Amino acid sequence: MNKHIIQIVLGLLVISILAVPNAAAEVPVPYPPNPIIVEEEVTDSGYMDMDFARLQINPDYSDIQIKPGNNDEVTVTVTNKENETITAAPFVSVAPYSENLFEESWATITPVSADIAPDAKQEFVIEVNIPQDADIGYYSTSIAFTEDIMPTPYPTPYPDYLNSMHFSVNVWTPPKIQIQTPFIRDRVESGKIYEYEIKLENIADIDIDIDPKINDNNRMYFGGPYGTMSAAFEDDAITIDSPPVVKAGETAIVNVHLEVPDDSKGRYYGAIDMGIDDPSINEWEGQVEMNFEVWIQPTEPYEKSFTAGIEAPITIELNSKQHSYDRWMGTSTNAQNDEVPSFDNTLVNPSGDEVEMSLIKITYGGSVNLGMSDFPPWEMDSEGIYQEVDTSYSEVFTAPGAVGDWTLKVLPMNVDMFSYSITIESSE
Question: Of 267, 294, 321, which closes a domain?
Fold first, then answer.
C-alpha cells in the first residue's frame, strides 16, 4: 500500500504593528509560524484507510411522538458484520442543529453495553421519558453504538459517529383550539364580493385569545415561460372580522371578506395567521391557507365547424364537469357556487340560417366522498361528513340535418370546462 503525505499548510500570519499615539506594543502571533504537517495513510483509491467496527443497525432511523410527562420506547437490533467480537455501548450524541436540544437524561438504553459475536445480533431498548415541562416541538439527536467517528482532515466541532442511528422525537399535545376550516379555496370573478367563514372550536376549559391577520411571510409568485407573474390581487382586497377570544367549550366564527378588484386575472395564494394563544399549535398549524382563482365568464361563444355527409338528424350532446370546493375547506357563503351550469347554443346550417334545436335530455351527476381520509379527526361524526367531490351536467339536443358544412356555437354559463359530441346518424 502506498503512503502519501497530506500536507496542510496553515502559512504565516503577517502581523502589522500599528502606530498608536503614546503607545506601541507587539501583537502576539495567534498561530505557530511553521507549517503543520498531518500524516494519514491513504489507499490507492484516494480514500483514507479507516479502521472501525462495522455494525448493522436496524432501524437506522426512528421518529416517535410523545406527550409531555409520558414515555415511549424503541427496540433496535444491532448485527455484528465483523469477524471478531465487538463491544457496543450505546449513548446519546446530542445534535446541536436540532430545533430543540434533546437531553441525554431523557433516554435510558438497555442493556448499557453488550459484547456481540461475529454475525450475532443484539437488541437494545431505548426508553424515552419526556418531562412534564418540556417545550412542544421536534427534537433530533443520534444514538451511537460505538465511539468510532468519521475521520476528517480538519477539526470539526461535533463528531460524526459511524455506527449510529438518527433519533427524532416530536413532543406534542392536542391543540386546545381546532381549526375546522384549514383551507379557503374558491373560484372568484373580478369585481365581485365574497364572504367566507372560518370555524374555531375551543375544547379547553379556559378562554383562548386569537388575533387573525394576513401572514406577510406567506407569499407565492408564479414562474413561467415569460418570467415571474405577480398575484391576481393584493392583500388589501381581504378583510377579516374576528372576535378577540374563543370562549371555553364554544365555537367562534372568523369572517373573511373578499372584494375582487376589477380586471383581476390569475391566482392568489396567501395565508391567515390565526394568532392563537395556544403553545401546542405550531406556527404553520395555526394558519388558514387561501387559494383563489380569478375566473372570467366568457361573453363570446365557442364555435365548432363540422360537415354532414348525409341528410340525417343531428344529435348534439354537451357535458360539463365541475370540481367542488370542500365545505369544510371554507367555501363561499354566497350562492355563486350553487348556480346551475347551462349552455346557450346556436346551430347554423349550410345555408347560413339558424336551426331550431330541441332539448330532449338533461342529466345531473356527481361523486360523493365520505371524507374519512380528508376530514380532521374532530369532524369524523359531523353532519358535514359527505363531500361532493365533483358534479356534472349535460344537455342533449336534436335538429333536422342536411348535407353540407355546419357551425355549432356554444356559450357556457357557470362552467369550468365542457365537452361536446356531434352525431349524424341515419335511421335507415
Answer: 294
- The range of the structural domain enclosing residue 279 comes to 177-294
Tell me the C-alpha to C-alpha distance, in Å, between residue 267 and each of 76, 183, 230, 339, 425: 49, 15, 9, 22, 44
Tens of pLDDT along 76-135?
999 999 999 999 999 999 877 777 889 999 999 999 999 999 999 999 999 999 999 998
Same domain for 330 and 307, yes or no, is yes
Residues 140 and 184 in one domain: no
Contact 254, 198 (CB under 8 A): yes
Indicate if 346 and 375 belong to the same structural domain: yes
Query: Are residues 140 and 190 located together in one domain of the fold?
Result: no
**Residues 252-277: tens digit of each pLDDT:** 999 999 999 998 988 898 899 999 98
Lowest mean pLDDT among 36-40, 230-234, 403-407: 36-40
Cell triple for 33? 509560524
Among residues 318, 297, 292, 310, the alpha carbon closest in space to that of 231 is found at 292
- The closest alpha carbon to 322, from 364, 289, 267, belongs to 364
Last residue of a domain, one of 171, 203, 233: 171
What average pLDDT does the segment 300-327 reach?
86
Any idea what the Cα angle at residue 149 is, between residues 143 and 153, rounded to 5°? 145
Q: Is 21 among the domain residues? A: no
Query: Which amino acid is residue 22, in one-letter code?
Result: N
Q: Terminus-to-terminus CA distance in the chain, angstroms?
A: 92
Grid look-up 395564494 returns 269
CA 300 → CA 35, 297, 346, 412, 419, distances in Å? 81, 9, 12, 9, 17
User: Alpha helices of 90-199 — where are they, by DSSP H?
Assistant: none
- At residue 32, does pLDDT exceed 60? no
Dist. CA 82–CA 158, nearest whole Å: 27
Q: How many domains does the chain have?
A: 3
Q: Count CB neighbours of 95 within 10 A.
A: 16
* Residue 310 cell numbers, joined: 348525409
Residue type, 79: T
Cut 0.85: pTM above it: no
**36-38 and 387-399: which strand pairing?**
unpaired
> Do 183 and 287 fall into the same domain?
yes
Of 393, 398, 322, which is closest to residue 408 (Cα–Cα)?
Answer: 398
Which cell goes with 130? 419526556
Count other Cβ atoms within 10 Å, centred on residue 109. Answer: 19
